[in-house]
Amino acid sequence: MSLDIFLDDQELISRIQKLKKERNAVILAHSYERPEIQDIADYVGDSLELSRLAAKTDADVIVFCSVHFMAETAKILSPQKTVLLPAAEAGCPLADMITPTQLAIKKAEHPNAAVVAYVNCSAEIKAMADVCCTSANAVQVVDAMPQDEILFVPDQHLGRWVQTQTDKKIILWAGCCPTHQRMKVKDILDLKQQYPDAEVIVHPESNKDICDLANAILSTSQMLRYCQASESKTFVICTEMGMLHRLRTAMPDKTFLQPSKGLICPNMKMTQLEDVYESLKELKHPIEIPEPIRIKALQALNGMLAAVPLK
Ligand code: SF4
Description:
Rossmann fold; 311 residues; 15 helices; four-stranded parallel β-sheet; single chain; alpha/beta
């Protein structure tokens, strides 16, 4: 283990900035990352926003502070760049709830269904899908498919919410995000009692009983824009707690509350300043994807962009 890891935060941050220039690197952080990671990032956003930013920059190295499938998405879009995941063990339990073998069996059971894969899945699953979607564009992507039946993977709650917005038949996959699952109706109702004017903003990975309480059901990037445009001063934010740091930083005059204490994704909190420093210094841990899988996964991502161009 390097002695460098005993550096204090200020020294780490200045070394990270120096290495970033030397490597011609860009640091990206998901909105669920630790506050200090969001603060050193060049960009903070949702997974696809960040991957598309990464594809557009002229940086040679992308340090993607997030979980594995997100860094993979950046690599799918930017194969010529070095994409690093600072915390190699940061995975996503939702993405792990579907394997290529399981999906192949389900596809054979529903030969007429189009497979729509939420981007929260591995490159292998994306490669088996007809098209990808995000939580922001899932309804439009589903509606744009020529098939009447949609096998929606891997998040059942997002799929269920899409079903309420479309006439297509949605076949659900039994995956879910364990972090969003932990939210409790009672906690939201308690906050509503204390702050009756607060708007309840819910991520569509949440259970139906939580979605039923929402003023708006939105992806993380939509949450930011919605709260900026809203005249409300107080919001109950029903998603991972890292999002509150992003919202408070962007709108210091508004109040953002979290319903259930400790709504933390442990994987998103794995990346620490030391990991970013080590990653830049040693080029740890590069994402590699076999080219045949990358090309098919890219087709599914491009299919989404063709159906619903991102703004
Ligand atoms: Fe996966 Fe949920 Fe964590 Fe996002 S918040 S990385 S979906 S476990």
